[in-house]
C-alpha cells in the first residue's frame, strides 16, 4: 500500500487541533497537595490521561487505564510490541504569558498553550499517525502501544509503574524531545558532600548560600562574613570583580559584611554555558584565613570544583568516543553556623565510567577536607547502537519526509522516557530551526510542524511494524 503521508496528515488537521485544544484545556500540573487515592498526582494529570484515552476509545482502539497514573492506546497484535511513550502532564504555567496558557490559541500559523510542544502536541501527533494507519486498514505484524504517562516532569511515577506491571516493549520511541533523533542519554548521578560547622576568629563565615536546584548552574551567591578588617575585605572584593567574569556587590551590615556574587544561570547539561556564582564566591573567600569546617568547605569548592565542568581536579574526568564528556555541575552550596556545609554536585556521565567510580573519586578528595559524600540519585547511561533498525528506520523516514540527507543521531545530557527501553530512542517533535519554548512562557508549536510530525510518525509506525 502506498500512502502519501503528508497529504493524509493534512486531512486530519482540524480533528487534530480540536482534540489538542481539549487536552490543553486541562491544567495537568502535578499537584501533590490535592493528591487522593483516585488522583495520586492531583486531578489534572489523571484527567488529561483519561481525555487522551477517550480519543482512542472514540476512534475504535483498545485502551487501558493502569491505576489512573498511566495508560495506553493499543492497535494490532503479536508477540512483539512497538511502543511510543508520551506524557499528558505539563509544567506549571509560570508568569509572562500573552495568552491564557490553558486555552489553546491560534496565531500566525502557531498554536500557543502549555503542552503544545511538551508533550501534548507531539503525543497527539503520534496518536494521529497511528490513526492514519488504522483508518487505512493497515494490519501491523505486532502490537503497537501509545503509552501515556502523567508525571514526566517530576518523577516518572506513571511510566515507571507501566514498566513494573507490563512487559518491556521490544523497541520504540518517545515523541518528547527533538528531531532528528536521540540515541544516547548520559547517566545522571547526584552527590551530597557535607562538612561540619566549626569556624575561625579572624574571619568567620556566618552563612553561604548559592543555588536552588541540582540541575541548574547557580546564577547568584550570597555570604555573610565577620572580620576585623572590613576595609581590606571590601578592597579585595573590588579587585576580584575586576579580574573575574562575575559582577556583584558588598556592604557592611550589623551582622557582618554581606557579599553578593552574580554569575549566569544555565542548565546543568552543559555547565560551560553558565557562570557558577557559588564557586566564584568560594574562590573569592579562599584568599582569607578562615578556619575549621568553614575553611574546608570553602577550599573544597574553590580548589577542587571551581571552573572545572569536566571534573579533572577530582580525577573523575572521562570522555567516550560516541557519548562525549562527563560533565559536573555544582548546583547547591550552603553553609551556616548551625548545620555546617553542604555541596550538591550533579554529574552527567557517558558509558565507560560509573556512578560508583565518581563517588570513589569525590570521596577521596572530600576526605582531605573533612567532608563526607553520599550518593542521592542515579540513572545509568543509555545508548542504542546507531545500526539498530529502530535508529536506521526512523532516520530514513525523517530524511525521506523532510528532504534532508546524512542525518546523524545525537547524544544528550538530559533524559527522556526512551531510556526505560533497551531499544528506545527519542524522536521529535521539535524541528531544527523551530524555537524551543518547552517549560517557558508562551510555549508554542507551528501547526505545520505538528502536521509534518504526524506524517513522520505515521510512516515510522508503518515502516517499523509492517515490514
Ligand atoms: Zn516532555
TrEMBL record:
Show the Gene3D superfamilies listed in the entry. 3.30.70.360, Zn peptidases
Question: Which molecular function GO terms apply here?
Answer: acetylornithine deacetylase activity; dipeptidase activity; metallopeptidase activity; zinc ion binding
Q: Name one GO biological process term.
A: L-arginine biosynthetic process
By its UniProt entry, which Pfam families does this protein fall under?
A: Peptidase_M20 (PF01546)
Q: Sorted alphabetically, which CDD domains does this protein's record hold?
A: M20_PepV (cd03888)
Please tell me whether the keyword Protease is annotated for this protein.
yes
Question: What are the record keywords, sorted?
Answer: Dipeptidase, Hydrolase, Metal-binding, Metalloprotease, Protease, Zinc
Q: Does the keyword Hydrolase apply?
A: yes
- State the InterPro entries in the record: ArgE/DapE_CS, Bact_exopeptidase_dim_dom, M20A_pepV-rel, Peptidase_M20, Peptidase_M20A
User: What is the required cofactor set for this protein?
Assistant: Zn(2+)
Q: Which SUPFAM superfamilies match?
A: Bacterial exopeptidase dimerisation domain, Zn-dependent exopeptidases
* Family assignment from sequence similarity: Belongs to the peptidase M20A family.
Q: Can you name this protein?
A: M20 family peptidase PepV
Naturally occurring in which organism (per UniProt) = Lentilactobacillus diolivorans DSM 14421
